[in-house]
Design a protein that fits this description.
heterodimer; A: 165 residues; alpha+beta; 4-stranded antiparallel β-sheet; 6 helices; 30% helix; B: 119 residues; mainly alpha; Rossmann fold; two-stranded parallel sheet; 4 helices
Chain lengths: 165, 119
């Protein structure tokens, strides 16, 4: 409701099911560094092997497939920030996705992953750990927002979903 | 809101993972937020009713200390929306909630349940 009423919502989440349900656009952060940004559907549907082998190819190492279910992927050491536009909150692709399971599947058990040191160009997580990470996620998302998601882009996306693909 | 470079601090709102609520009724919590946002006193009652209705807490409007754990997120959302924000920052508002409460929050945020999807 809030999204429909024109409020720009920036949300940190670790829950990919929730990302699928809510997000219009995703800003994917690993240890505070901006790794990927784009429409949520693109982000979620990109399989590991299809991700470009740029500096954050290590994302694929962070996404842990569990039980072969697309929704039980688990990220570690990162935060995903979601952008919910007033009108871009629900893309047809997401709305028609019947693989959405509710209530969400049980949380997979956390597994630690060792990051290749050179793979992620980012500052190490501060001593405040996760909390600082969340703040950084929200702040990065907020700063990235105006330049990235302009009203014209949203309008284009609504009129022709594949225009930006 | 797309394209807006920035917004006034008074038009930003944050909802934390565990919102700290005043030990008062949900209505009093929202009233406090409205006061902080500079809403004229004469308009507050109307706004409180609308906001609590919006987050599904209309029944708890006058019940003191009834903001139980799973309703805290909804009350916090009402308080955040009281500022009539342009930007709403959410820090994992559903992280410690059960699925039903999570759904409540998601509905407040903007998720519309797709009838075609499995329940």
């Amino acid at each position: 409701m809030a999204a429909q009423s024109g409020i720009k919502i920036v949300m940190a989440s670790h829950d990919l099911g929730q990302v699928r349900r809510l997000a219009g656009d995703v800003i994917f952060l690993v240890r505070g560094a901006l790794c990927e940004q784009g429409p949520a559907a693109d982000f979620l549907d990109t399989r590991r092997r299809e991700r470009p082998a740029h500096s954050c190819a290590a994302i694929s190492d962070l996404i842990l497939p569990q039980q072969e279910h697309p929704m039980t992927f688990r990220f570690s050491s990162f935060a995903v920030a979601l952008l919910l536009g007033a009108s871009a909150a629900f893309t047809p692709a997401v709305a028609q996705d019947r693989s959405i399971v509710w209530p969400r599947p049980p949380r997979p058990r956390f597994r630690a992953v060792r990051l290749p040191a050179a793979a992620v160009q980012a500052k190490p997580v501060s001593s405040e750990g996760d909390r600082a990470g969340h703040w950084q996620a929200l702040d990065t998302a907020r700063r990235a927002m105006p330049t990235w998601c302009s009203s014209t882009q949203v309008a284009e996306k609504n009129s022709s979903p594949k225009a930006l693909a | 809101m797309g394209g807006r470079a920035d917004s006034k601090p008074v038009r930003r709102a944050i909802l934390f993972q565990r919102p700290v609520m005043l030990r008062r009724t949900a209505a009093a919590n929202v009233a406090y937020a409205l006061a902080q946002a500079g809403t004229p006193r004469s308009k507050r009652a109307e706004r409180i009713a609308a906001l609590l209705e919006r987050v599904g807490l209309a029944d708890l409007r006058t019940v003191r200390r009834e903001i139980v754990r799973r309703r805290t997120a909804a009350a916090g959302a009402a308080r955040a929306l009281a500022r009539d924000p342009e930007i709403l920052l959410l820090d994992e508002p559903t992280a410690s909630l059960d699925p039903a409460a999570t759904r409540g929050v998601e509905e407040i945020i903007g998720w519309r349940r797709n009838p075609a999807s499995r329940s």
